[in-house]
Write a structure and sequence with these properties.
about 220 residues, alpha/beta, Rossmann fold, seven-stranded mixed beta sheet, two-stranded antiparallel ribbon, 7 helices, about 30% helix, binds S-adenosyl-L-homocysteine
Length: about 220
Amino acid sequence: MWSSTDIAGIGMTSQRTRNRMVARLRDQGIENEAVLSTMSVVPRHLFVDEAMATRAYEDASLPLGEGQTISQPIIVARMTEILMSIEGMHRVLEVGTGSGYQAAVLSRLVDSVYSVERIRSLLLKSRERFKALGYNNIMTRHSDGSWGWPGQGPYNGILVTAAPASIPDTLLDQLAINGVLVCPVGKQSGHQVLTVVHRTVSGFHTEYLDAVKFVPFLSGKM
Ligand code: SAH
């Protein structure tokens, strides 16, 4: 599917461009070195439409097909950094595979990534990317993520990349003790808040971070 030159990139998709993106992430407050070095190697330009490849490392969200978008690098970095701030981040569930970029970043940092997507055509494309790039610890499923992926849990981390009006209880149930869930919450028309839920032996503790803008969390498969 891709040659090693395609993967390495050239010009606006080169290592130098990825390094500049990472320098900006540092300026924007990302401190986790493992997250930064992972984002300097994962070829984001291969996860966006070919016509958009030269814009892949800009500070922008980009279309990935089917009216969905791949988050800005800073949002991917922040959500990943929150997840990695917890000890023992072995198994992660992602809801909303989309292009597969977020899953690819996670796959370099944790043991196993379980990612579910409701739009089949997107899932098929991201599976091809994982295969071509050798990201073999990402398991995917065509499913409505409202149900999580029960057979594989509990998860040390759950990352939701589409915004529900409220966090589905089913997802909270699949979070391990000492685990963390990161999810944008809110209506499409109103504002959404990046929400972080820690699970401890005594229950769930919720923190609200920045205002964000994600595509809606929808039910059903297509
Ligand atoms: N993490 C993705 C971002 C994709 S955008 C990436 O790195 O590219 C969010 C994705 O969530 C879309 O592909 C959308 O189809 C999917 N989605 C929305 N609601 C969902 C649900 N209930 N279950 C599974 N996927 C969902």
